[in-house]
Design a protein that fits this description.
With about 400 residues, this protein is mainly α. It is about 65% helix and about 0% strand. The protein has 19 helices and no strands.
C-alpha cells in the first residue's frame, strides 16, 4: 500500500514473460471458456423464435449492437456510394473511430468470418491487456499475487463480456495499459506511440494522453528528459486526421460530435441535469424494465467512478485522476448516461485499487465474488441474447 499511496515504483523490469504473467493468462483463458459456455447456452435458450427447433450459430449471438457499425465500416467504409449524414436511413457510423474497423478488415484477409475476426481481435488484445494490467499491479503493489488479484477483479467485473465481444474495449486496453506501463518506467517514446494506437480506437485515447502528460510533468526532474515530451503529442494525430477525413467528406469539422448527438443524444448538459434525467429514466417507470435496469447500472457506474476519482485525488494520484475525471466528464454531461458500466473496464486504477484493498481486507474479495461477480453472468446473458447494449 505504501507504493500505491506515494506513487513510487520499483524500476527493475520484470522478465520478458514471467510465471506471474502465465498465471494471469491462465485466469484469462478460464474466463474465456466460461463466456463461451454462456454464449452456447444463450444461443439455445434465448433463440429469437421461441418455437425454433434449431439454435442459431454460437457466433451469431455475438453480432449485437455496436458490432454492426464496426462491421459496416470494415466492409463498406464510412460513406458507401455517397451516403452520409442527411441521407435516408443513415446510421451515424462516423461516431465510431477507425482503429477497430481497420483491424477487423486486416484480420478478415486471413479469417473468412467477419464475426470470428472481431472475436479473435478481442481475444488476442484482451490477453495483452491482462498481462499489462498484472505487471502494472505488481509495480504498484510489490507482492507475488497482486497482478492476479487485479486481473481477477477485472475479468469478473459486471461488464466483462465486452472484453470478449467484437467491441473496442479489449483493443483499446491492449494499447492503453502498455502505454501506462511504459510511462511508469519513464519510456516516454513508447508510451506516446502506444497511446497513439489507443487514440485510433476510441476518443478515450486522448484521456490516456492527458494522463501521460500529467505523469510526465509530476515525475520528470532532469532537464534532459524533457526532450521526450514531444512524443506525448503523438496521440493527438489520429483524432486530428480522422476529423480532417470527416470534414473532407461531409464539410463539417464537427461531424464526429454531431453523429454522437444524432445517434446517441450526446449533446452537452450540466452534470446534475444528466443525473436527473438518468434517474428519472431508471426509476419513474416510464420505460420498459430492461431499459430501466440499464440506467440503474449507469447510475451505479457513475457512483463508482466518482468514488474512485475521490480516492485518487485524496492520494494525490494526479495522472490517474486526470484520466478518470475526463472520462466521467465526457460520459456524465450528455442528455443521459450511456456506456458508463462499459467504461469501468477501462479504469485500471479501479482494479488495482480493489486488489490493494483486498489484501488489507480479505472480506472484499468474498463480497466481490459472491455479490458483484454474479452480475457478470447476468449482463453476459443479457448482451448475448440481445437484451442489453451496454
Amino acid at each position: 500500500m505504501t507504493a500505491l499511496k506515494t506513487g513510487r515504483f520499483a524500476s527493475v523490469r520484470p522478465p520478458r514473460f514471467s510465471p506471474a504473467d502465465r498465471a494471469v493468462l491462465q485466469l484469462y483463458l478460464l474466463t474465456r471458456v466460461g463466456l463461451w459456455v454462456i454464449a452456447y447456452a444463450s444461443a439455445w435458450m434465448f433463440a429469437p423464435d421461441g418455437e425454433a427447433k434449431h439454435a442459431p450459430s454460437v457466433l451469431e449471438v455475438w453480432e449485437r449492437w455496436d458490432w454492426v457499425h464496426y462491421l459496416h465500416i470494415a466492409k463498406d467504409g464510412y460513406f458507401p456510394s455517397g451516403a452520409g449524414p442527411g441521407t435516408e436511413g443513415w446510421d451515424n457510423r462516423e461516431a465510431f473511430f477507425p482503429g477497430f474497423p481497420m483491424a477487423l478488415r486486416a484480420v478478415h484477409v486471413v479469417v473468412p468470418s467477419w464475426t470470428a475476426s472481431g472475436l479473435l481481435i478481442s481475444f488476442v488484445a484482451g490477453a495483452v491487456a491482462v498481462v499489462a494490467l498484472g505487471r502494472i499491479a505488481r509495480l504498484e503493489i510489490p507482492t507475488a499475487d497482486s497482478g492476479e488479484r487485479a486481473v481477477r477483479f477485472l475479468l469478473l467485473s459486471p461488464c466483462a463480456v465486452f472484453l470478449a465481444a467484437g467491441y473496442t474495449e479489449a483493443l483499446f486496453l491492449a494499447f492503453a495499459l502498455p502505454a501506462w506501463l511504459a510511462a511508469r518506467r519513464a519510456d516516454w517514446r513508447l508510451a506516446g506511440l502506444l497511446a497513439c494506437g489507443a487514440a485510433t480506437v476510441r476518443v478515450s485515447g486522448l484521456f490516456v494522453a492527458a494522463a501521460l502528460a500529467v505523469q510526465f510533468a509530476v515525475t520528470v526532474r532532469a532537464h534532459r528528459a524533457w526532450r521526450s515530451a514531444p512524443w506525448l503529442l503523438l496521440p493527438a494525430v489520429p483524432p486530428l486526421a480522422y476529423t480532417w477525413y470527416l470534414q473532407a467528406h461531409t464539410g463539417d469539422w464537427f461531424a464526429w460530435k454531431h453523429a454522437e448527438v444524432r445517434g446517441w443524444y450526446r449533446d452537452f448538459h450540466a452534470p446534475w441535469e444528466s443525473w436527473r434525467t438518468t434517474w428519472q429514466a431508471a426509476f419513474d417507470h416510464g420505460y420498459p424494465t430492461t431499459y430501466a435496469a440499464e440506467w440503474q447500472l449507469e447510475l451505479l457506474g457513475m457512483v463508482v467512478g466518482l468514488v474512485l476519482l475521490g480516492v485518487l485525488l485524496a492520494r494525490r494520484r494526479w495522472a490517474e485522476a486526470t484520466y478518470v475525471g475526463l472520462t466521467l466528464w465526457a460520459l456524465g454531461t450528455s442528455y443521459w448516461y450511456m456506456s458508463i458500466p462499459r467504461a469501468t473496464l477501462l479504469w485500471w486504477p479501479l482494479w488495482i485499487g480493489l486488489a490493494a484493498w483486498s489484501m488489507r481486507r480479505p472480506m472484499v474479495t468474498h463480497v466481490y465474488l459472491f455479490a458483484v461477480a454474479p452480475l457478470a453472468t447476468v449482463t453476459a446473458v443479457a448482451f448475448l441474447s440481445g437484451r442489453w447494449a451496454g
